[in-house]
Amino acid sequence: MNADGEMVYVLLSDDRQFAEVFIGNSPQSIVLEAVKGGYLSADGKTRLINTGQAWRLLRP
């Protein structure tokens, strides 16, 4: 669940090089590519990071 109370689902590719993020009722998903410490969108605006205890989604 994100800070706005929306459910967030993440699907990882078999090789874990990509993550697809689905947020609440949004009609579009966000595709992220693996980088050190997590995943990053192609435009650099959305990041999924591993905090060690949980995953955190950062976006504008």
Structural overview:
By secondary structure, this protein is an all-beta fold. The chain has one domain (8-58). It is 0% helix and 48% strand. It is built from no helices and six strands. The protein has strands spanning 8-12, 18-23, 30-35, 38-41, 47-50, 55-58. The protein has a six-stranded antiparallel sheet with strand order 1-2-3-4-5-6, with no helix packed on it. The chain is globular and about 25 Å long.
* Largest sheet report: 6 strands, antiparallel
Please identify the oligomeric state: single chain
Number of strands: 6
Mean pLDDT: 92
Number of helices: 0
- Structural shape: globular
Order of SSEs = EEEEEE
Point out poorly predicted stretches: none
> What structural class do you assign from the helix and strand content?
mainly beta
Helix content: under 10%
Q: Largest beta sheet: what is the strand line-up? A: 1-2-3-4-5-6
Rg (C-alpha, Å): 11 Å
- Beta percentage is over 45%
State the end-to-end distance.
16 Å
